[in-house]
From TrEMBL, chain A:
<feature type="transmembrane region" description="Helical">
    <location>
        <begin position="106"/>
        <end position="124"/>
    </location>
</feature>
<dbReference type="InterPro" id="IPR043429">
    <property type="entry name" value="ArtM/GltK/GlnP/TcyL/YhdX-like"/>
</dbReference>
<feature type="transmembrane region" description="Helical">
    <location>
        <begin position="65"/>
        <end position="86"/>
    </location>
</feature>
<feature type="transmembrane region" description="Helical">
    <location>
        <begin position="205"/>
        <end position="230"/>
    </location>
</feature>
<dbReference type="GO" id="GO:0006865">
    <property type="term" value="P:amino acid transport"/>
</dbReference>
<keyword id="KW-0812">Transmembrane</keyword>
<dbReference type="InterPro" id="IPR035906">
    <property type="entry name" value="MetI-like_sf"/>
</dbReference>
<keyword id="KW-0813">Transport</keyword>
<dbReference type="Pfam" id="PF00528">
    <property type="entry name" value="BPD_transp_1"/>
</dbReference>
Automatic annotation (TrEMBL), chain B:
<keyword id="KW-0472">Membrane</keyword>
<feature type="compositionally biased region" description="Pro residues">
    <location>
        <begin position="1"/>
        <end position="17"/>
    </location>
</feature>
<dbReference type="InterPro" id="IPR027417">
    <property type="entry name" value="P-loop_NTPase"/>
</dbReference>
<dbReference type="Pfam" id="PF00005">
    <property type="entry name" value="ABC_tran"/>
</dbReference>
<feature type="region of interest" description="Disordered">
    <location>
        <begin position="1"/>
        <end position="38"/>
    </location>
</feature>
<feature type="domain" description="ABC transporter">
    <location>
        <begin position="45"/>
        <end position="279"/>
    </location>
</feature>
<keyword id="KW-0067">ATP-binding</keyword>
<dbReference type="InterPro" id="IPR003439">
    <property type="entry name" value="ABC_transporter-like_ATP-bd"/>
</dbReference>
<protein>
    <submittedName>
        <fullName>Amino acid ABC transporter ATP-binding protein</fullName>
    </submittedName>
</protein>
């Protein structure tokens, strides 16, 4: 293989003007983290609501929850990204559509919403599984104490369900983090996009993607350590 | 069991507010059984012609019975006979399609009935205890008092710990359910139900999930409760308990109340052949 290794490339100025290639990657990393966290907030809140709806006695609530999950998990993420970014503004009234297109950071907002809605469907399934894994008697006991449906969820079902699903939820969080890379297709300058442009400018493809890989692994390790600590702090004495 | 005696149920009780036990300074000595609308001897639970179906399958057929204030009624019968379903209908944990049930004068099947409020006045003890595993014993005893009855944390804790002492488990207040034995958990579950000042207690096979050596400690608590005058409806196979404290025994088979008799009549001369058969099987060893 005829390849000129140059690990010093990171400290050379990038063609963007200000800063080095390392700065470029780090700014990509920052956008990746920001997009992951913001979309996770949507995914967690919306996913919890949808997941709960699928376990409510009301048939209508179940139907809405099921429809949401099937819609958002059965369309590829890339297609959803395009739909939100290219198609949706065209379907809106012309003025609103063009205002959305001109938003500063439009790719970022779009990516956050798209990922949030996509991951919410997956979170919803975890929440539903967690609630359904609890003994049926727990719901009965809460109800028999005089709790309303909302109180039964708030004080009995959800605190237990979230503990059960913490490990798979960590996986969902990591998936969400890695899925931010799909947003490069709508122009979000996140870590993968930055690694790609570094490769295009400098032709140092191995260095660029080695750095990106290491950065992804590093943040994921941080997440895993945090999740382990969280799991430990939430563990209940006398269980398992 | 050598816990503090529980005061007599008919102790003078001048308050008519929603939560008389709190009005007293000495909450810990307050009455275990709050005043109800029903006078002694009047029906506390009235079950009238209740029928229930799961789809096309009928699980309850025209069940009718009364439980008077202060009465202890044991419901027995072979598994699948509908006894658990029947007592779950009493606090509307299970819906029923025909008939009516009244608890202390309040209709269970009525759109205008506030079911959470009704349920908060009916204590229920489950086969598998169903303590909330993520909460300490103290929190298990207090959460519904605070969130449903609106008691202050302090009052709820005082009442909870008092009842914990009565079931002989004061030392375990800070533990979690998973750290207790089955018998201890079930005693906590009884205390948790009592903390709400119920007018009626329902027991759904409270000793069926226990190791044999733990059955006694739970039954002791129930016997004491019965002697204190609590109105109780108990689904159980413990015929010793029935003989000791039951006023009446209801025998169910295939969703029907086959026999509804005083304890002496039931054990002495069961009328239906099905009950005779059941008794001979259950009492032969």
């Amino acid at each position: 293989m005829n390849y000129n290794w140059n690990w010093g490339i990171f400290f050379e100025p990038s063609p963007e003007g200000a800063g080095t290639y390392a700065d470029m990657l780090l700014s990509g990393l920052l956008w990746t983290i920001l997009t992951a966290l913001a979309s996770w907030v949507i995914a967690f809140c919306l996913g919890s609501i949808i997941g709960v709806m699928r376990t409510l006695p009301s048939r209508a609530a179940q139907a809405v929850g099921t429809a949401y999950v099937e819609l958002f998990r059965n369309v590829p993420l890339l297609v959803q990204m395009f739909l939100w970014y290219f198609v949706l503004p065209e379907l809106l009234p012309a003025e609103l559509g063009s205002r959305i297109k001109q938003l500063p950071n439009a790719p970022f907002y779009t990516a956050v919403i798209c990922l949030g809605f996509f991951t919410a469907a997956r979170v919803a399934e975890q929440v539903r599984a967690g609630i359904q894994a609890l003994p049926r008697g727990q719901r009965l006991a809460g109800t028999a104490m005089g709790f309303t449906v909302a109180q039964t969820y708030r004080y009995v079902l959800l605190p237990n369900a979230y503990r059960i699903i913490l490990p798979p939820m960590t996986s969902e969080f990591l998936n969400n983090l890695k899925n931010t890379s799909v947003a490069l297709t709508i122009g979000l300058l996140e870590l993968t996009a930055r690694a790609r442009s570094m490769q295009e400018f400098s032709f140092q493809v191995f260095e660029a993607f080695t750095a990106a890989t290491i950065l992804y692994v590093m943040i994921n390790v941080v997440v895993i350590v945090a999740a382990t600590l969280l799991e430990r702090s939430l563990s209940i004495p006398g269980q398992r | 069991m050598t816990s503090t005696p529980i005061p007599a149920p008919d102790a003078p009780e001048p308050h008519s507010g929603p939560d008389p036990a709190l009005a007293d300074e000495g909450l810990a000595k307050g009455p275990l059984i709050p005043p109800s609308k029903a006078a002694s001897g009047e029906p506390m639970i009235a079950i009238d012609g209740v029928s229930k179906w799961y789809g096309a399958f009928q699980v309850l057929t025209d069940c009718t019975t009364r439980v008077s204030k202060g009465e202890v009624v044991v419901v027995c019968g072979p598994s699948g006979s509908g006894k658990s379903t029947l007592i779950k209908c009493v606090n509307a944990l299970e819906p029923f399609q025909k008939g009516q049930i009244s608890v202390d004068g309040t209709k269970v099947k009525d759109r205008s009935t506030n079911l959470p409020k009704l349920r908060s006045r009916v204590g229920m003890v489950f086969q598998h205890f169903e303590l909330f595993p993520h909460l300490s014993i103290t929190d298990n005893l207090t959460i519904a008092q605070r969130k449903v009855l609106g008691r202050s944390g302090e009052d709820a804790k005082r009442r909870g710990l008092d009842l914990l002492a009565r079931v002989g488990l004061s030392a375990h207040a800070e533990k979690f359910p998973g750290q207790l034995s089955g018998g201890q958990q079930q005693r906590v579950a009884i205390a948790r139900a009592l903390a709400m000042n119920p007018v009626v207690m329902l027991f759904d096979e409270p000793t069926s999930a226990l190791d044999p050596e733990m059955v006694g400690e739970v039954l002791d608590v129930m016997v004491e409760l019965a002697r204190d005058g609590m109105t109780m409806m108990v689904v159980t196979h413990e015929m010793g308990f029935a003989r000791k404290v039951a006023d009446r025994v209801i025998f169910m088979d295939r969703g029907e109340i086959v026999e509804d008799a005083t304890k002496d009549d039931f054990f002495g001369q069961p009328r239906s052949p099905r009950a005779q058969q059941f008794l001979s099987k259950i009492l032969s060893h």
